[in-house]
Amino acid sequence: MTLIILTMTAALLVAGLFFFFAATVGFLRFPDLYTRMHATGKGDTLALLLMVAGLALFNLYDNFCWMGMVQSVKLLFIAVFWFIANPTATHAVLRAAFESGVTPWTKDGTVIIDKTEGEGA
Amino acid sequence: MVFMSGIVTFFVLLIFWIFMSGLFDLWHFGLGMVSCALIAYMSNDLLFKDMKVASKGRETIRLIKYMPWLLYQIYLANIYVVKLALHPKMSHLIYPHIVKFRTKLKKDVSVFTFANSITLTPGTITVLVEDDCFYVHAIDIPVAESLPGDMEKRVGHIFGED
Amino acid sequence: MGNFFLGTALALCFFIFLCLYRAVWGPTVFDRIIGAGFVGTKTTILLLLIGFIYRRIDMFVDLALVYSILNFISTLIVSKYFIKKGVHSHQL
Question: Which of C34, C72, C85 minimises the CB distance to A40?
Fold first, then answer.
């Protein structure tokens, strides 16, 4: 039992570290602000969920009592909070960038594909 | 009705307090009861505004059913980002654009859920929401053509906008 | 298990160090905001790991919770501020 829980914790932490690593590399390598946000807005969320889940599991095993459960619920609350807050923060920064005129990097120069044209609205 | 929503707000806040403090002695628990009652009295129209409690419960259950699908999409999105970020010729693979499209969703909460779901699914992030137009940054052409996809229907089904 | 947490924390510190490149030299001001937010995400995990290393998780979990909320609010406020200023990328 001990071995299973410790292995699962270690696996979740290592998976989280791997996604953090990929998000960081993407954050450094992608060509402009908008594509960089693809790396941070998604890689962050999953990596943090995985690592917090691993830590909550370890905490449940380490001190199994009422206070330990309360701390695990708090850890899960951190995960849920980031799950909602991270896309919102991404959206806020992108909106600020778009409205202050940072143009996206494109290959052919057409920035916006308009799907609302031709709907007669 | 106002009284009912106040009671429900009070119990939601009290559960939150119990998990934040974890103590049941008279001082801490009494402090929690008093502050939850005060906040429920002052802002009882914030959480359950012009909404029946029954439909709120149904929406919560549907939202919880929606979560596993969203987690799977997040997993796919991360695999995609990892593949792009660690690919040696990454700039040949991407073809970024901003796609503008119209949505049928009306309520604020469903637009919020839809925008956050777009950000978490593969290859797309929401840039701007204006009235009912979404500006979405898509990283590749096939992803851009698949918008809005069946996610709009799923989110509309959760909040009863079929 | 303490050594494993210590190694994870050191790896996270290394990623924070890499992120500081964008936070300091990012071409636009929004790259810097994102860089700071990304450092904040990792710092949340780092605080939790420190709590497990020193076996005081009861205290550090509250710190991490408050830190994540502050990080989110500061990102929102700074981005709102720069909408009003209207900073263009060539003006930096």
Answer: C34
